[in-house]
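ping. complex inputs:
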Amino acid sequence: MVTAKNIHHTMKTIQKIGLAIFILCLGVFISLLGIGHYQLSDKIFKETITDANHQQLLKPAVSFMIDKDYDSKIAFIADFKKAFNSVNDEFKKNQQWDKVIYADYTQPIVKHSTIGFVKENSLILFFICFVVSSLGGLMYMIPALFIEPVAGIKHNDIFKTAITSRGIIAILFSIGLISFYIFLYKAPEYITNWILLVDDLSFAISGSEASQWFLYGFLYCLVMTVMSARMYIKYRHNNYQLVRTTSVLFFQIAFAFLIPNILSKLNLPSMDFKNMWPLDYTFFFDYRIDGLISKGLLGYWMLGWGIFLFVVGVPVMVYFFGKRWYCSWVCGCGGLAETLGDPFRQLSDKSLKAWKYERVIVHSVLVFAVVMTAAVLYTYFTGNSKLLGIDTGSIREQYGFFIGFIFAGAIGTGFYPIMGSRVWCRFGCPLAAYLGIMQRFKSRFRITTNGAQCISCGNCSTYCEMGIDVRAYAQKGENIIRSSCVGCGVCAAVCPRGVLKLENLAEEGRFEAYLRPEEK
Amino acid sequence: MRIVIIGNGVAGITTARYIRKMSDHEILVISSESDHFFSRTALMYIYMGHMKYEHTKPYEDWFWAKNRIDLKNAFVDKIDFQNKTLFTANQEQISYDKLVIATGSKPNKFGWPGQNLLGVQGLYSKQDVELMEENTKGIKEAVIVGGGLIGIEMAEMLNSRNIKVNFLIREKEYWSNILPKEEAILVGKHIAEHHINLINETELQEIISDDNGRVKSIITKAGKEIPCQFVGLTAGVSPNIDFLKNTDLNTDKGVLVTEYLETNMPDVYALGDCAQFANPKENHPAVEQLWYTAKMQGKALAQTICGKQTIYNRGIWFNSAKFLDIEYQTYGMMLKSPFEDEDSFYWEHQNGKICVRANFSKAEGALRGFNFFGIRFRQTIADEWIRNQKPISYCISNLNKGFFDPEFSKNHHQDIVKSFNIQFNNHQAKAPKKKFLVW
Ligand SMILES: Cc1cc2nc3c(=O)[nH]c(=O)nc-3n(C[C@H](O)[C@H](O)[C@H](O)COP(=O)(O)OP(=O)(O)OC[C@H]3O[C@@H](n4cnc5c(N)ncnc54)[C@H](O)[C@@H]3O)c2cc1C
Ligand code: SF4
Ligand code: SF4
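pong. complex structure:
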C-alpha cells in the first residue's frame, strides 16, 4: 500500500541522493582547479599575444618557459608573471611609460597552455559539473511537491536549519562565494580549467573562446534556472511570484546572456539592453562609447537606448509600476537575489539602525557614481585627465574596485548567507537608490494595508529581503511606501491574515492610513 | 500622574502607547511573562521555525526607554485598592494613581483526570511554546482536545514535525459552533488533506499516565483509548484573574467593565482578554478574546485615561484566521446560521478550497456580512458596504472592487455572479467585462 508516510520517506531519500549527487559534482568541479599540465609553446605564445610589439618585447623574457612542462599551475603562473613583470619593471625603471604593457595576458596564456585531462575531457566534465549537478539540485527540490503536497507558505524550520540561519554551513558557503568572486575578478588565471569547460559553448554562441565573464554569465543563468525551479514549486499557489520569476529568468538568459553573445558572433556591437547606468557603471567609459560609435548607426542607437532607459524609462515605469518593474522583474542582480538568494531573505536586518546606515550608504554610492561618471565624461570630452586636481582615471579605478568588485560582487552575493539576499541592492546599488527616490516621491505603487486585520505576527518583516519593517506600517493601517521596496511581493505572500497587497493605484491619498470610522 | 498597567500584552501596551502619544504621565507596565511586548499570535511560528522570538516583538527594545514607558518584569499577586498599591510576588510595593488591568487569559482546563500529567499542556504563553518544544521531542502521536482556532494552530505545529495528530472535537464539524456548515466542511476536508485525524463528536474522559507520570494515552467519553505522548488542551481560554477574585473588584468570568472599560473601583480599568462587559451588545460576546479588539480597546481607554471620556465601540465586526493553508476573513456578524430576517448566498469553487458567503436582509436585500475562504477581501470596501446597507446585487456585481488577492491571481467573479443569479433570481447581479491586461 502506498501511504503518505511511505511517499514521504521515499521522497526524503530522493532528496538525499540528489544532494549527494550535487555535492559530488561540486567536489569534481572544485577539484578541477588543482589538476592539469601546462606547456607554453611558441605557437601558443604567438596566438595569444597577438600584438606584434608585445610579442617582441615579451619574447626574450618568457623564452625560458617555452616547451617546459609544468605540473603545477601555480609555478607556471609564477614564472609567467615574473617574466612579464621583469619586462615592465625595466620600462618603469627607465621611465619609459609609453612602453609599459597594460594588457593582462596571464589568464589566456594559462588557459591556452593547458594540456591533459581537463582539456581532453571537457565535454564529459561539462556534463558532470553542470548538467548532472543541476539534475542533482532538481532531485533535491522537486520532492518538495510530494513532501508538502498541499500548496501554501512552507517555512518550516528555516530558523532551525544551519544553512538558512547563519550556521556553520552558511558561513562556509559564504566563504566559498566570496572566494569565487575574488578569483573571478582578481585572479581568473587560477580558474582557467573552469573556463575551458565552457569554451565549446562559447564558440557556439558568441563565435569566440570563453573568458571568465562568459563562464560567469553561464553559471549565473544555470544557477538562476535551477533555483527558479525551487521558486516555481514553493510559490505554485501564487501567480504573482510565478510570473515575476519567469520574467527575471527570461531577462537574465535572453538579455544578459544570449543576445550580447549572439551580437558578438554577428560582429555587431554587443549590449545588455536591460542593464542601465548607473548600475552599469562603465556605460560612459571611453572604450564603451568609442566601441559603440565606431560601429555606426546601430552603435549610436544603442548609446541612445542606454541613455533613454535611465532618463525616460526609469521615471515613467516607476511612476506606473514602482521600482519593482526593474528590481524584481528585470534586473540580473535582483534575479539572482530572488532565486539563489530566496532561501536567505529572512536574514536581512530590520532594525532602525540598519535603515539609517542603508540610507546614508546607498545614496553616497549614487553620488559617487554620478561624480565618477561626470569626471570620466569630462576627461572624454576635454581630453583633460585631471578634474580639480584629481586624476579621473583613478576615481574610475577606485569605483570599479570598491563598488564594482568588493561591494556588488564579493559582499553583494558573498554575504547572502549572512546578511540576506539583497545586501547590494539595499546598501550599495546606485540604480536602486535612483529608482527608490522616484518610487518614494512620484509613483502610483504602494503596498496597501487591509485595515485592521493585522495581528502583528511579524512574518512580513521577517521575510522582507530589503529589511523593511513592514509590520510597523501594517499594524497601524498605513500603506507601505518605502524607497527601498523592490516589490517582490513576498510580504504579501507570507501574511497569514491577507493584510497586504501590492498595487498601482491613483497617486492621491497613497499616504493615508485606513482607519475605520470608529477610530477616526 | 502615575499610571500602572498590569500585563504587557497588546491590550496593556496599546493603552500605554496611546497614553504616551497624548500625555506626559508616568507609565509603568508590569508583566511576568516576558521583558518586552511580543505578538502572542505568532507563537506557532516560533515553534515551526518560521521565526525566532525576536521577530515576534513589534517594537525594538530601545523603543520603551525612548518613549518613557517603564517596564518591569514581575508578578502582581495582590492589589490594595483602598491605598492604591500593588504587591508583587517578591514583596515589592508599587503605588499608582490609575491602574489598568490587562492580564489576558489562561487556557481552560475542565478538571479532566490526568490534566496535569507531564506532556499535557495548553498553548497560551511564551513558556508554553518552550514547554511544547520539550514535550514533543521525538514523539510520534499527539491528541488535541478542543477544536477552536488555537487547536488548529497546534495541529499545524505538530504536523510540521510529522507528529501524528488526533484532533478531538465536540461538534460534528470543525468549529461548527461558529462556522456555517458548508465552511466547516470545507475546512474539515482541508484538515484531512493534511493527514490530521479529525475525530468529531468526541470528548475527553481521562488522560492516562505511564509509570513516570507522563501521558501515554487518553480515553474518550465513548471509552475509546488513543495512544499518545502529548496532549494539547485547547478548549478555549478564560480570563486570567485569579489574583483578583475575592477582592473589592467586581468580577464574573472576567473583570466587569462598562463601555468605558471602567471597573467598579475608581481609577481602575480593565481591558483585553481579562475584561468582561457587564452589558454586552446584542449578539456580541461579553468577553472579547481577540487581538484587534484589544487594540481598539486600548486606544479608547488611553483617551479616557487622558481625560477625554471615550466609549469603546468596535464598529462593524470583523475577524480573520488561517486554517493550515486556507485563509479566512469575515466581515459583519456571521454566525453559524443567518439571522431570522436574513438570506444567505454561498458559492464554493470546485476545488473545494475557496468560498464566499454573503448574508443579506430578506426584505431590502441589504448586505449584512461576508465570509471569505481562500479569497482576500479589502476591509475598507466590506466595512463601507455593510455600514451603508448596500444592496446585495450591487455588492455581488462589484465584488471585484474588493478582491485583495495578489496581482495575477485568478478572479472568480464571473462564476460567483452566475451562481448568485441562479440562487437568487429576484436580485440580478452583473459582472463587469474582464479587461485585458488590467490587474
Ligand atoms: C496561540 C494564540 C493564537 C492567537 N491568534 C489570534 C489571532 O490570530 N487573532 C486574534 O484576534 N487573536 C488571537 N489570539 C488571541 C489574542 O492573542 C489575545 O486576545 C490577545 O493577545 C490578548 O491580549 P491581552 O493584552 O489582553 O492579554 P495577554 O496578551 O495575555 O497579556 C497579558 C499579560 O499579562 C501578564 N500577566 C497576567 N497576570 C499578571 C500578573 N498578575 N502580574 C503580572 N503580569 C501578569 C501575562 O503573563 C501576559 O503576559 C491568539 C491567542 C493565542 C494564545
Ligand atoms: S504578516 Fe500580516 S498579520 Fe503579520 S504582521 Fe505582517 S501584515 Fe500583520
Ligand atoms: S516590503 Fe514586501 S514587496 Fe517590498 S521588498 Fe519587502 S517583502 Fe518585498
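The longest helix of chain A spans residues 352-382.
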